[in-house]
Amino acid sequence: ILNVEQSPQSLHVQEGDSTNFTCSFPSSNFYALHWYRWETAKSPEALFVMTLNGDEKKKGRISATLNTKEGYSYLYIKGSQPEDSATYLCAFDGSGNTGKLIFGQGTTLQVKP
Amino acid sequence: DSGVTQTPKHLITATGQRVTLRCSPRSGDLSVYWYQQSLDQGLQFLIQYYNGEERAKGNILERFSAQQFPDLHSELNLSSLELGDSALYFCASSSRAGGDTDTQYFGPGTRLTVL
Questions:
Q1: Element at A11 (helix H, strand E)
Q2: What's the CA gap between B37 and B88, in Å, rounded?
Q3: Rounded Cα–Cα distance for residues B15 and B13 (Å)
Q4: How far does B98 lie from chain A, in Å, by closest CA?
Q5: 3-class SS letters over A27-45
Q6: What are phi and psi of B107, to 5 degrees?
Q7: What's the average model confidence in pLDDT over A23-34?
Q8: I want to staple A47 with a disulfide (CB 3.0 to 4.6 A). Which of A20, A29, A35, B14 is the partner?
Q9: CB contact under 8 A, A43 and B94
Q10: B45:A98 CB<8 A
């Protein structure tokens, strides 16, 4: 059974704080690691697809890094805003030629104004 | 708006019944994926279709089946429903069969409640 673990489960920060969370995944048979942002009452929205060890991706104030050898990825949010409040999901692709993603349970971020 | 549509948005039914959930992928996407989000679980992959053919299967119950039609829309059929089948069912689509940079775009989901 492949496990994808995310920590922390939830996080409460003040507006302006920078924060980061972790996704741990199997280090064998790695093909890709996906990050999604999921707001309440909406559908998951793709943030990044990461494939190479050492990869770094950035989208506005959100960035992510990838370490495939040790099996982890970090998501960073710089200067959190209330609109960043959401659940952040990572998903591991170990299949290579299908789209079978194994999702973590997510980290729920609450940014207080 | 991801471009993926799902109907219905909500569905309330009784145990033992059968329901059909429908998904239309983004224009041009050939792959459709079905996921289940139960109360105490993360998103669980159920099944993938690519251009009409089953491509990958997850822990999908035998009471559940899916298909993808020539116009690429997909249906997920759930039968002999049990209380535990109550969940949010998402459909996602992508342009290819899968692969390391193939982003999946999620629809708004169908919330199924089994009473």
A1: strand A10-14
A2: 5
A3: 7
A4: 4
A5: CCCCCEEEEEEECCCCCCE
A6: -80, 180
A7: 92
A8: A35
A9: no
A10: no
Between B21 and A30, the more confident residue is B21
DSSP assignments along B29-58, one per residue: --EEEEEEE-TTS-EEEEEEEETTEEEEE-
Q: How far is A18 from chain B (nearest CA, A)?
A: 26
What are the tokens at A22? 């972790």
Element (DSSP H or E) covering residue A75: strand A72-77
Reading phi first (left if > 0) and then psi (alpha if -120 to 50, else beta), residue B33 is in beta
Tell me if residue A99 falls in helix, strand or coil: coil
Chain A residues whose CB is inside 8 A of the B101 CB are 32, 49, 51
Between CA B40 and CA B101 the distance in angstroms is 29
**A44-53, B6-15, B41-50, B95-104 — which is least confidently predicted?**
B95-104
Whole-Å CA distances, A21 to A11, A14, A15, A94, B3: 9, 16, 17, 21, 29
With a CB-CB cutoff of 8 Å, which residues 59-88 of chain B face chain A?
Answer: none
* Tokens linked to A87: 């659940």
Q: What is the mean pLDDT of chain B?
A: 93
Distance from B83 to chain A by nearest Cα, in Å? 22
Is pLDDT at A51 greater than 80 in this prediction? yes
* DSSP string for residues in A53-92: TT-EEEETTEEEEEETTTTEEEEEESS--GGG-EEEEEEE
CA distance B85 to B70: 28
Give the SS3 label for residue B99.
coil
